[in-house]
């Protein structure tokens, strides 16, 4: 994977975390959940965060490959079933 693409994926993953925090703050505020309750509520367990990061990176790589194929006008191999 090109270093620039990897850096972009990492940056996007970090932005997802920031987006999650922003959404939770707005959502919790609308529900009347206190700041203390927000602080005591983890976004996701560490193991789950790692799995989510791996899934995000994999799906991003697959999407990149898809659009690269489209750009190059490549087609899927056809199998005779």
Give an account of the 3D structure:
By secondary structure, the protein is mostly helical. It is 74% helix and 0% strand. It has three helices and no strands. The chain has helices at residues 3-31, 35-39, 46-71. The protein is elongated. The chain starts with a helix and ends in a 10-residue tail after the last helix. The mean pLDDT is 84.
Summarize it.
The protein has helices spanning 3-31, 35-39, 46-71. The protein is mainly α and 81 residues long.
What key phrases describe this protein's structure?
single chain, about 80 residues, mainly alpha, elongated
What's the layout of helices and strands?
Layout (H helix, E strand, L loop, with lengths): L2 H29 L3 H5 L6 H26 L10
Largest sheet: none
Output the radius of gyration.
Answer: 19 Å
Instruction: Label the overall shape.
Output: elongated
Number of helices in the DSSP assignment? 3
Q: Find the structural class using helix and strand composition.
A: mainly alpha
Low-confidence stretches: none
Mean pLDDT: 84
Q: Beta-sheet strand percentage?
A: under 5%
- Helix amount: over 70%
Distance between the termini: 33 Å
Secondary-structure element order, N to C = HHH
Total strand segments: 0
């Amino acid at each position: 994977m090109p270093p620039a693409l990897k850096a972009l994926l990492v940056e996007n993953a970090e932005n997802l975390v920031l987006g999650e925090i922003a959404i939770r703050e707005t959502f919790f505020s609308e529900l009347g959940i206190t700041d203390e309750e927000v602080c005591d509520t983890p976004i996701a367990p560490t193991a789950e965060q790692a799995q989510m990061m791996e899934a995000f990176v994999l799906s991003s790589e697959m999407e990149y490959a898809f659009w690269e194929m489209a750009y190059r006008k490549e087609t899927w191999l056809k199998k005779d079933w």
